[in-house]
Specification:
Elements: H1 56-72, H2 92-96, H3 105-110, H4 121-124, H5 127-131, E1 136-139, H6 141-149, E2 156-160, H7 167-178, E3 183-186, H8 188-195, E4 203-207, H9 215-223, E5 229-233, H10 239-251, E6 256-260, H11 269-274, E7 284-287, H12 290-299, E8 303-307, E9 313-314, E10 325-329, H13 338-343, E11 346-349, H14 361-381
Parallel strand pairs: 2-3, 5-6, 5-10, 6-7, 8-10, 8-11, 9-11
Antiparallel strand pairs: 1-4, 2-4
């Protein structure tokens, strides 16, 4: 055999000996910890309802919850002290520390001063963040000032401590005061937290959620007009494009705008500002299914046209412009979706120079709406 197998003194047994156990020392670590105690049985939890002495932090939490519930007119989410005294043994802490209970509960209840809250105080003390639920912050000196100039609805103006006062800041504070908007002076770290670290230049404007018009009401109001004109958006994801389309629709006499709820831009603060206040004067609706909404318009006698770069009909040859009309604007990249495109009665193109591939969605909507307004003016003058 190769190697040193011919050595007479070679080892013929394994070097490894028998496995040595722990002698039961690790048995306690493998033992289960028992059931998880409910909130009303944990002395360190704010929902505790037993008769034992509460830690100072827990008692403060319960008082805070009761005050908040009284202010909001609801039932407090805390236990009533002593409510479980009749269902427990006198030594409740000792009973819980036995088998099937969480180890160390008796020690924590006895040494309540050394107990630690389960939730970090910093995470719970976020009233400003909770107040912004459903709202949006528009940041930056120029955006905030332009939004106030165009009468964008606002609920508060945040100004950072020690901000350098210039003409924009002075006009922002003056305009907010004239309109009765609360002006809140906060620390710069707090404003950084509220804005998510976005460059805010010491100013932020809180705007409420946009109040959309029900689609049925928008359609009913449009049909009552002489020659109704509606604008639909198919997957426009840029809020600036949305605001620009709303502004053009209001400028050229449209009766309303509707857009899908999902996978599309909504009326955020940026869209508000881009619309230059037109969103406050023009009804805007959100629909669950855009294709179904377009078919509903067709049932009411509207002609639905979709703006498409490859459309067979030129916008300058659009004879249907003088009747009830719905202009559908596609998304910035892919244009009209397949279902929406097949639902349209006509696909309309805008002739452009060969050096440009396509137009921006808001620009295309403005050109089409301007041509529709021109045709309607000519037809009414004849």
């Amino acid at each position: 055999m190769p190697g040193n197998s011919e050595r007479r003194s070679r080892r013929t047994t394994s070097k490894k000996g028998s496995s040595v156990g722990s002698g039961g020392k690790n048995r306690q670590g493998l033992r289960g910890r028992g059931r998880t105690l409910p909130a009303d049985e944990r002395p360190w939890h704010k929902g505790y309802s037993g008769d034992e002495e509460l830690p100072q932090r827990t008692a403060w939490k319960q008082q805070k919850e009761r005050r908040a519930a009284a202010a909001e007119g609801r039932t407090p989410k805390v236990g009533v002290p002593g409510s479980k005294a009749t269902t427990r043994k006198p030594n409740a802490a000792g009973a819980r520390s036995g088998a099937g209970a969480q180890p160390g509960a008796a020690k924590r209840s006895a040494a309540s001063g050394r107990s630690r809250p389960r939730v970090s105080p910093g995470r719970r003390a976020t009233p400003a963040r909770g107040a912004l639920t459903g709202s949006e912050l528009l940041v930056g000196r120029n955006p905030v000032l332009e939004a106030l100039r165009t009468h964008v609805p606002a609920t508060a103006v945040y100004v950072a401590h020690g901000i350098e006062i210039d003409e924009r800041v002075a006009e922002t504070v003056r305009t907010a005061g004239d309109r009765g908007i609360p002006i809140l002076e906060v620390g710069r770290p707090e404003l950084d937290r509220l804005t998510g670290g976005v460059l805010h230049q010491g100013l932020a404007l809180q705007v409420p959620p946009f109040a959309y018009e029900p689609f049925e009401d928008l359609l009913a109001a449009a049909t009552e007009a002489g020659v109704p004109l509606l604008v639909a958006l198919d997957g426009v994801t840029d809020p600036r494009n949305l605001g620009a389309v709303v502004r053009s629709a209001a400028a050229f006499g449209a009766n309303g705008v509707f857009l899908p709820e999902r996978r599309a831009a909504s009326m955020t603060a940026t869209a508000w500002r881009t619309s230059a206040g037109a969103a406050a004067r023009l009804p805007i609706a959100q629909v669950t299914n855009l294709t179904r909404a377009l078919k509903r318009c067709q049932d009411e006698g509207f002609t639905v046209i979709g703006l498409d770069a490859d459309g067979a009909t030129s916008v300058y040859d659009l004879e249907a412009a003088i009747g009830p009309l719905v202009v559908v604007v596609g998304s910035e990249g892919r244009g009209l979706s397949r279902l929406v495109g097949s639902t349209c009665d006509l696909r309309v193109s805008i002739p452009i120079s060969s050096t440009v591939d396509s137009l921006n969605a808001s620009v295309a909507a403005s050109v089409a709406l301007a041509e529709v307004a021109r045709r309607r003016t000519q037809s009414s003058s004849i």
